[in-house]
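Figure 6 in text form: structure in, sequence out.
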């Protein structure tokens, strides 16, 4: 069951206080909510790590999906907020050695771009 707006706001506040991920002022509850609803249209959880695609490239898939489908005005999402959305959806993350990005247990759905 998706989180309520209030639960998401509390979560984002807690993450700003307690995460090693760098959150920016542009990281809004609205963008997190959008990502949590859009990511399942693009990806699904798999059992193994996908080391072919990093969080950086996956976030660009989300931005491309937003632009292609003309969703909202601004397609941008920070890497940190994308990572938080993935974690909220139950994906596991593993930081890439000597890199600020992550691998996830993610399968890319081929038909996500209309």
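Output sequence:
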């Amino acid at each position: 069951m998706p989180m309520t707006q209030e639960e998401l706001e509390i979560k984002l506040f807690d993450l700003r206080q307690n995460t090693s991920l760098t959150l920016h002022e542009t990281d809004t509850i609205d963008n997190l909510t959008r990502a949590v609803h859009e990511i399942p249209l693009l990806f699904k959880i798999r059992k193994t790590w996908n080391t072919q695609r990093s969080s950086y490239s996956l976030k660009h898939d989300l931005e491309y999906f937003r632009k292609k489908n003309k969703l909202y005005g601004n397609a941008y999402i920070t890497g940190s907020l994308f990572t938080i959305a993935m974690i909220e959806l139950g994906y596991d993350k593993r930081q890439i050695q000597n890199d600020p990005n992550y691998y996830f247990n993610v399968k890319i759905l081929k038909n996500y771009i209309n």
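Caption detail: The two ends are 26 Å apart (CA to CA).
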